[in-house]
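Lab notes, practical 5.
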Amino acid sequence: MALGVAALPFTFVVHVLGLAAVVLVLVWNLYFRGGLAWDSENKALIFNLHPVLMLIGLIVIGGEAIVSYKSLPLKKEVKKLIHLTLHAIALVLGIVGICAAFKNHNESGIANLYSLHSWLGIGVISLYGVQFIFGFVTFFYPGGSPAIRRDTLPWHVLLGLFIYILAIGTASLGFLEKLTFLESSGLAKYGSEALLVNFTAIITILFGTFVVLSAISEARAATEDEYTAI
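Output from the prediction step:
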C-alpha cells in the first residue's frame, strides 16, 4: 500500500479542509437555517443537527482518526488510544445525528428511509459500528494474537477506507437531497445559501480525498511492532 510519498503534506491539507468544512456547515445551519435544537416547535431546527453532527462526527473527526495514527509523532500506544477515541466520538456523534433526522421526520409526519441517502446512511453507520467493535476487540482489548493482528490489519485498513469513502459519497448525496428540497420550496438556485451548500459539499469531498491520500501514503514499510495498532 506504500506510495513512497510522505503523508505529512496531505495531513496538513486534511486539517485545513476539515476546519473549513466545519465552519461552512455551521454557518449554513446557524445563519441560513436558523440554528440547532433537539426540542423545538420549529422542527427544521431539529433536522439541522443532522448535517452538523454527521459532518463533524463521521466525516471530519472520523477522517482525523484515520490519519492520526500515521501523522502524530507520539508513541504507538498513545497514537492507538487517540485513534480509538476519535473513532468512538465520531460514532457517537453519527448515531445522535441519525437520531435527529428520525426525530425530525417522526415529529413532522415525514416518512423515514425512503431515499438512497437514508439507505446508504444506515449502511454506513452500521458498518462503522462493526468496524469499531472489530478494531477494539482485535487490536485494543482483549486483543488478538500477533498472527491474527498481522493477518487482519490489511483488511481492517481496507474496510475502514471503504466505509469512509462510502460515508463521503453518502454525505454528498445528503447535501444534494437537502438542497433539492430547499430549491423546490423556493430557495434561489443561484443564491448565497445554495452556493454555500455546494461549496460545503465540494470541501467535504476534497477533505475525504486527502484523508485517503494521507492514509495510503507511506514513506516506509510497516514494522512488526505496528501490527498491534488498531
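Observations recorded by the TA: The domain at 8-228 is CATH 1.20.120.1770 (Four Helix Bundle (Hemerythrin (Met), subunit A)). The helical segments are 8-32, 43-71, 76-108, 116-140, 146-184, 192-216.
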